């Protein structure tokens, strides 16, 4: 175990609450042993401040489902994988043909732009208005946000996967949210995480990953040990090697405490395989 890659919402914490003290202690203990901790999230950079307050020395964060690599210590963007504005326009047009009433937003490095009526968690941070003029300015589009009233996120995702094949990469991070998130074609948390780990000289066998939703699927499959939260999405559970206890049971901490105990006891050291003692 050389790298811990963890989703945030539904994994480290629930419903934007603070991270539990037990989870924070487990993360700190692993870092004290030289294990790198990387948050890998669908959140934009502007939503990282509560996490940074709880983990003051947090370093690399992979944001927006792999679209941005951000250095919290230096407050700097290290890497961007944006959606070409023409591809964004094509994606919006394609989905609007399927769902004429669908509303869209653009998460960009320049800010959040949303069509009138688009519901967002932080309306004060959003700029409402038509999106065509925004795209004409060629912003750095990190992901496209989509809502269709009366549609669950799972149903949207299934149809969008068919409609956007070869155009863009759809996912979602909450079944109840009704929100679809679209990334550039071929982009995922796993793609950006793998690139970052390669720079560190770390292969997938030395990575432990945690997640709970469809936007975590590729990361859970890629990591040497992928843990889906027990209360996570069925697709995440199917993609993972193992199941961690639910987020409300401090599942990430439970697993890390066990893996750290094995490491300290000589049962597992960085670069060596870990015994299969978690729930499959």
TrEMBL record:
InterPro entries for this protein: HAD-like_sf (IPR036412), HAD-SF_hydro_IIB (IPR006379), HAD_sf (IPR023214)
Cellular component GO terms held in the UniProt record:
cytosol
Q: Which segments does the entry list as coiled coil?
A: none
Q: Which UniProt keywords apply?
A: Hydrolase
Say if the entry is tagged with keyword Hydrolase. yes
The Gene Ontology terms for molecular function here are: magnesium ion binding; phosphatase activity
> Would the keyword Protein biosynthesis be found if you checked this record's keyword annotation?
no
PANTHER family from the UniProt entry? HAD SUPERFAMILY HYDROLASE-LIKE, TYPE 3, PHOSPHOSERINE PHOSPHATASE
* Protein name per the record: Hydrolase
Q: Which organism is it from?
A: Sediminivirga luteola
